[in-house]
Amino acid sequence: MTDLHAADGHATPLTPAEREDLIPTHITLRSELNELEQQNIATGNRWALGRRHVVTRESFLKSLHRRMFERVWRWAGKYRTTERNLGVAPHLIEVSLRQAIDDARYWIEHKSYPPDEIAVRFHHRLVSVHPFPNGNGRWSRLAADVLITQLGGKRFTWGGADLRAAGTARDTYIAALKAADNHDLEPLIKFARS
């Protein structure tokens, strides 16, 4: 059994105040939290892929995060206000997200890259901004999935594994993100389709 607030090394650590925003009062174990989040994410998934959305709108991206986590966290869909070990400073979130959205719109309009690369670049930019207290990877992967389907492609598989758990798939994903940080998108594109 893992304590609900024990650091697992795989998610962005929450501040004590953010932990206080857990909605269900019966949750005491990390496994219970993971299960509840996964159920909520499935609901968000159906909403996101069940109708046409403009993925490159800030309002959609905030709504997507909210729908993925709203039954679990009060801060769902709200930008973080504290520093993290990754992502931009809190006061830069809105401008950085706006730049990522504008870039994606440009790439789509001008067909700057193949569709898979556009969606993966968008994912990378979103996750690098890290706008929310937690769930940024799951949220940005779903945003990329919605975008690629709208561009006529098939949804990504993202290694076909639970990327929250330690292991080869997560390690490969993190390495691919780091390569993308250094302007090498190929490992992340390959991982998205693996």
What do these coordinates show?
By secondary structure, the protein is mainly alpha-helical. It has one domain (16-192): Fido-like domain (Fic-like fold, Orthogonal Bundle). The protein has helices spanning 16-19, 30-49, 58-69, 93-110, 115-129, 136-150, 168-181, 186-192. α2 crosses α3 and α4 (93-110) packs antiparallel against α5.
What would CATH call the class? Mainly Alpha
Shape: globular
| Mean pLDDT over the full residue set | 93
Beta-strand residue fraction: under 5%
Assigned CATH superfamily: Fido-like domain
**Tally of strands:** 0
Give the low-confidence spans.
Answer: none
Spell the H/E element sequence: HHHHHHHH
Number of helices: 8
Radius of gyration: 16 Å
Percent helix, as a range, is 40-55%
Structural class: mainly alpha
CATH topology: Fic-like fold
What's the quick description here?
By secondary structure, this protein is mainly alpha-helical.
Helix-strand layout with pairing:
Elements: H1 16-19, H2 30-49, H3 58-69, H4 93-110, H5 115-129, H6 136-150, H7 168-181, H8 186-192
Helix pairs in contact: 2-3, 4-5, 5-6, 7-8
Key traits:
54% helix; globular; Fic-like fold; 194 residues; 8 helices; mainly alpha
